[in-house]
Automatic annotation (TrEMBL):
This is alcohol dehydrogenase. It comes from the Eukaryota. Its EC number is 1.1.1.1. Residues 206-337 form the Alcohol dehydrogenase-like C-terminal domain. It is found in: Cytoplasm. The keyword NAD applies.
Length: 370
């Protein structure tokens, strides 16, 4: 058993003391996990635009000092009372939303909006006792969306951790804990394009590229990338995009351009920017009768979605999604396995005997991780 179990851990963390001010590397104290909590050693973390958005605190309730970060991978250091499905040494992905497995949403096959653990950007403390597990010289440092992965160690509710294949390289799959799964799931789980269909993806950042990849996996015949930055198209091709349009190149609404390109509109669209005009365009560019638009991006709190009611009455469907409709604990491990299956296919082509195939897999993954 680790000598740190039950003890306060001192480690480094990037602390945001004020809105918009540079993060400061500090030594913080990380308390042991309480009931239904897990302390995790973070090995890899990435920067998501959501971290920047709340660090700037423009239009949100400012809560400082705070440790940001929510897209990461790590290893369980210790567990609190009542935690039975994780143990020290398990590889996990922290997720900004959770799955208690007991509420109506968790039991529903249609929802991942857990009543207990859905994202709450205003809460900076743990649910168990309303206190932070981070401190500096006795001063509490607030959590962010229940994860706070810009720290070498963090404490997370067990319902916000997905246990994954220990062979999966954490430096690669850490991005599956937010943006990539959000975009991929928006297409595969919500838009559900049929094979041979047409799909428009608005915004070709990480989330949009994942949405395009989802359309490619689904077998879409045309995947139209829409972005104000034309330089993004070359990268988007690698993820399945077949065409590109830049709204700045046209003197009419981009939804009209797309409708002309596709004989009345695309079958599915996925909006990944959070800009209200892009949201409206994504909805109005789908074909009447069967078109489905899925909104992924988070708009400004004062934004208003406006469209003519006839666009709905003409049998266009507008949907929203949260984390790609994936349930973190139940579904995220399988998303990791989609990544791992590519490595497995490579190994299987060499026809290694079953007796050594697992060792070969381990060697391959070690090379990938280093």
């Amino acid at each position: 058993m680790s000598s740190t179990v039950g003890q306060v851990i001192r480690c480094r963390a990037a602390v945001a003391w004020e809105a918009g001010k540079p993060l400061v590397m500090e030594e913080v104290e990380v308390a042991p996990p309480q009931a239904n909590e897990v302390r995790v050693k973070i090995l890899f973390t990435s920067l998501c635009h959501t971290d920047v958005y709340f660090w700037e605190a423009k239009g949100q309730n400012p809560l400082f000092p705070r440790i940001y970060g929510h897209e990461a991978g790590g290893i369980v250091e210790s567990v609190g009372e009542g935690v039975t499905d994780l143990k020290p040494g398990d590889h996990v992905l922290p997720v900004f939303t959770g799955e208690c497995k007991e509420c109506a949403h968790c039991k529903s096959e249609e929802s991942n909006m857990c009543d207990l653990l859905r994202i709450n950007t205003d809460r900076g403390v743990m649910l168990n006792d309303g206190k932070s597990r981070f401190s500096i010289n006795g001063k509490p440092i607030y959590h962010f969306v229940g994860t706070s992965t810009f720290s070498e160690y963090t404490v997370i509710h067990v319902g916000c951790l997905a246990k994954i294949n220990p062979l999966a390289p954490l430096d690669k799959v850490c991005v599956l804990s937010c943006g990539i799964s959000t975009g991929l799931g928006a297409t595969l789980n919500v838009a559900k394009p049929a094979k041979g269909s047409t799909v428009a993806v608005f915004g070709l950042g990480a989330v949009g590229l994942a949405a395009a990849e989802g359309a490619r996996i689904a077998g879409a015949s045309r995947i139209i990338g829409v972005d104000l930055n034309s330089n993004r198209f070359e990268e988007a091709k690698k993820f399945g995009a077949t065409e590109f349009v830049n709204p700045k190149d046209y003197n009419k609404p981009i939804q009209e351009v797309i409708a002309e390109m596709t004989n009345g509109g695309v079958d599915r669209s996925v909006e990944c920017t959070g800009h209200i005009d892009a949201m409206i365009s994504a909805f109005e560019c789908v074909h009447d009768g069967w078109g489905v638009a899925v909104l992924v991006g988070v708009p400004h709190k004062d934004a208003v979605f406006k469209t003519h009611p006839m666009n709905l009455l003409n049998e266009r469907t507008l949907k929203g999604t949260f984390f790609g409709n994936y349930k973190p604990r139940s579904d995220l491990p399988s998303v990791v396995e989609k990544y791992m299956s590519k490595v497995q296919r490579v190994v299987s082509t060499f026809n290694f005997p079953l007796s050594i195939r697992s060792r070969v897999m381990a060697l391959v993954m070690t090379k990938i991780m280093h």
